[in-house]
């Protein structure tokens, strides 16, 4: 089992994200995972730097911690040929520490190119074509591809690592499970649902199983709740809503009725190591082996100390 730390690029300035990555390595995390957004979920979050620039800087400032995108959409805002090149370069400059996490995207980030927001079935087909293009380019040489939605013409990724990055595919249901099992090296999910892991395995999926664990560490439960009310209430909408809303103002409107009790149910809040360990354990019990701790508490450094001195030993014992 590996333990990672979620670097929320919507919540902190790019320089702070890089600093936190270095601190996460020092605290003993096995990897860090960066969200890849154009917009934040809420205006109150206030940031959304370019993830691939931050990845390069983190690779240069760390030596052992793994680097994961959680997740990149390689179909609209980025063409898959660009992601094939970017991921190959990241694997080289990080000495093989990079994993490409991909998904079918959210309207929030992809509508900016003015191409409209496809229905979910089309998004899954686009993701399938994108992964086929990435795999094709990673095979070496020049390639062209003519899909129903995506095309490639005489393209070659010149700098390829000897060992290609793993691709972990985000999934939430049958259609995305099929894509992940066929074209991924692993899977990524944000809910501790054993049926997702089982479905992935039953369809032939192998490799790492990433799960994002929602935590909020602070000295008291109330101190943990305060930043959740302000910046994290969007997370309770569920992916069927989160994938569709176009702007932070829409997430603000959709989350106005979220109550403290809802947040307490969704996040492990406060200083109790057993509460945090139980949240992690729900993912372990569901079959996840790469656990991404997403701390939304007010003080990242306090969480790093908590992890190093209490939580890590508790969840790996």
UniProtKB/TrEMBL annotation:
Its EC number is 1.-.-.-. Residues 7-290 form the Luciferase-like domain. Gene3D superfamilies: Luciferase-like domain. CDD domains: Tetrahydromethanopterin_reductase. Pfam families: Bac_luciferase. It comes from Antiquaquibacter soli. One of its GO terms (molecular function) is oxidoreductase activity. This is TIGR03557 family F420-dependent LLM class oxidoreductase. Keywords: Oxidoreductase.
């Amino acid at each position: 089992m590996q333990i990672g730390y979620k670097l929320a690029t919507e919540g902190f300035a790019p320089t702070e994200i890089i600093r936190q990555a270095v601190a996460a390595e020092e605290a003993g995390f096995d990897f860090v995972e960066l969200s890849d957004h154009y917009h934040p979920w809420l205006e109150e979050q206030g940031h959304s730097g370019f993830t691939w620039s931050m990845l390069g800087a983190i690779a240069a400032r760390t030596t052992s911690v793994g680097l994961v995108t959680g997740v990149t959409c390689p179909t609209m805002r980025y063409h898959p040929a660009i992601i094939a090149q970017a991921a190959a370069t990241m694997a080289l400059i990080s000495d093989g520490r990079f994993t490409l996490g991909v998904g079918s995207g959210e309207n929030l980030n992809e509508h900016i190119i003015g191409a409209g927001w496809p229905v979910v079935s089309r998004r899954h087909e686009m993701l399938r074509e994108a992964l086929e293009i990435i795999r094709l380019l990673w095979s070496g040489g020049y390639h062209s591809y003519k899909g129903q939605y995506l095309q490639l013409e005489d393209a070659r990724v010149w700098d390829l690592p000897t060992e290609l990055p793993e691709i972990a595919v985000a999934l939430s249901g049958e259609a995305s499970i099929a894509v992940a099992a066929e074209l991924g090296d692993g899977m990524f999910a944000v809910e501790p649902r054993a049926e997702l892991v089982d479905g992935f395995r039953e369809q032939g999926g192998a490799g790492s199983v990433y799960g994002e664990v929602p935590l909020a560490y602070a000295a008291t439960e109330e101190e943990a709740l305060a930043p959740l009310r302000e910046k994290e209430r969007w997370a309770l909408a569920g992916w069927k809503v989160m994938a569709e809303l176009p702007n932070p103002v829409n997430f603000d409107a959709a989350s106005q009725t979220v109550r403290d009790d809802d947040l307490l149910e969704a996040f492990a809040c406060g200083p109790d190591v057993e509460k945090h360990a139980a949240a992690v354990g729900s993912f372990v019990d569901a079959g996840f082996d790469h656990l991404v701790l997403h701390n939304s508490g007010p003080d990242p450094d306090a969480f790093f100390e908590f992890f190093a001195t209490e939580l890590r030993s508790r969840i790996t014992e």
